[in-house]
Amino acid sequence: MTSFALPSDYPRVRQVTSFHELVSTPFSAGVNALCWQRTLPGDFSEVVGLLGVKEGITTLDEARLLALPLSAAGRVAVAVLLEDLRQLRDRGLAPNLDCIQAYPRDEEPTVVPIDVHSFHADSATVETDTYLCTYHGPSSEGLRNEDARRHVDDPDTLAQLRKHLGGDTDAEFVAVLHELGYDLHYSAAPQAQPFSFGMGNLWRIAVEYPGSPVPPCIHRAPPRCPGQTPRLLLIS
User: SS in 3 state form for the chain?
Assistant: First the structure.
């Protein structure tokens, strides 16, 4: 696995040393992301190669993984994947393990992009968190809240969106922005330096919901490059 280090001056991320600590540590004092840094055994590249995913997103199940004609190192990697899924399911969560060649993109971006390659926050109507782990391929990226600005907080952008989306009243316009997710997407400040979530690390990040004690963790799927290897991603 590749080396990983968080910026030393970024207090919103706290490192933990176990799964129990990851799931039980409350978000507080501005900390909105927990990272269980791990160096994982096994050959995840072999797993991805044998899956043969050529386009889109393929969600994997235990049967498909166990049916792969793997080497010993590949079988170790699959055991890691299944154990991570088990631990999260035992917590009452519903994780997905996806092999991702490409995400859907905005076919015609309306003023600003709102797909997963744009910096965004997850949202919910009840208290919850997002769990993420990249096992292979480009990793997710985070952005300091202090270096981010919601697109809808920029007057020029908001005026363009109002012109494009319409709405007979301000309330209707705000409702459309929320329904389409524009209020969850951010631009990065010119001096911003996004940070990598790293390889093999299991993250728990804060979600925007009513009453959340901390701001949401702003993140994105990595920019897509030609010839890029597929991602193997756990998300819950």
Answer: CCCCCCCCCCCCEEEECCHHHHHHCCCCCCCCEEEECCCCCCCHHHHHHHHCCCCCEEECCHHHHHCCCCCHHHHHHHHHHHHHHHHHHHCCCCCEEEEECCCCCCCCCECECCCCCCCECCECCCCCEEEEEEEECCCCEEECHHHEEEHHHCHHHHHHHHHHHCCCCHHHHHHHHHHHCHHHEEEECCCCCCEECCCCCEEEEECECCCCCCCCCEEECCCCCCCCCCEEEEEC
